UniProtKB/TrEMBL annotation:
GO cellular component: cytoplasm
Origin superkingdom: Bacteria
Keywords, ordered alphabetically: Cytoplasm, DNA damage, DNA repair, Methyltransferase, Transferase
More info: This enzyme catalyzes only one turnover and therefore is not strictly catalytic. According to one definition, an enzyme is a biocatalyst that acts repeatedly and over many reaction cycles.
Protein known as: Methylated-DNA--protein-cysteine methyltransferase
Family of the protein in this entry: Belongs to the MGMT family.
Main function: Involved in the cellular defense against the biological effects of O6-methylguanine (O6-MeG) and O4-methylthymine (O4-MeT) in DNA. Repairs the methylated nucleobase in DNA by stoichiometrically transferring the methyl group to a cysteine residue in the enzyme. This is a suicide reaction: the enzyme is irreversibly inactivated.
Active-site residues annotated for this sequence: C134 (nucleophile)
Principal cellular location given in the protein's record: cytoplasm
Biological processes annotated in GO: DNA alkylation repair; methylation
Start and end residues of each Methylguanine DNA methyltransferase ribonuclease-like domain: 11-78
Length: 173
């Protein structure tokens, strides 16, 4: 990424609150929760009035929230250390409607058993939540733990994918 390369943004409504999508150099670089409405709509577009990456991301996220999309097909360019990049690449392999644990991610990466905390920290730094599904990672006992967007959002995303959370299970008993 070249220094000074312009970042374009677009704010969209979603069932988990407003999301700000950010793109640079033809790739999605971040998704932020609790976005403020755009002060300057020109930041969302290029000189031709469109930003294809942002429009594709919005469309695919809308399809995801409508239950019509399970896999994202977007150019991604999250910024992070090589270790974080490895963790995020592994996150991308966790299928829709399934969960895994921090320890299982660490093992899949060939890391020692104590590395689950480092994997959790990398998850917490994930700049592309939902698309890189860190919400699908739970504690070793199946409980919802840490999520940059907050545990209620994590639970909502998992419910959208048909995964019962401990709060859902508590209602059943």
């Amino acid at each position: 990424m070249a220094p000074g390369s312009p970042t374009r943004s677009l704010v969209m409504r979603s069932p988990v609150g407003p999301l700000e999508l950010l793109a640079r150099d033809g790739a999605l670089v971040a998704i932020r929760f609790d976005a403020e409405p755009e002060a300057d709509p020109a930041t969302a577009t290029g000189p031709d009035g469109r930003n294809d990456v942002l429009e594709d991301a919005r469309r695919q996220l809308e399809e995801y929230f409508a239950g019509l999309r399970r896999v994202f097909d977007l150019p991604l360019a999250p910024t992070g250390t090589p270790f974080r990049q490895r963790v995020w690449a592994e996150l991308a392999l966790v299928p829709w409607g399934r969960t895994t644990t921090y320890g299982a991610l660490a093992a899949a990466l060939g890391l020692p058993p104590g590395a689950s905390r480092a994997v959790g920290a990398a998850n917490g730094a994930n700049p592309l939540p939902i698309v890189l599904p860190c919400h699908r990672v739970v504690g070793s006992d199946g409980t919802l733990t840490g999520y940059a967007g907050g545990l209620p959002r994590k639970a909502a995303l998992l419910r959208l994918e048909g995964v019962a959370t401990e709060a859902d299970q508590a209602v059943l008993f």
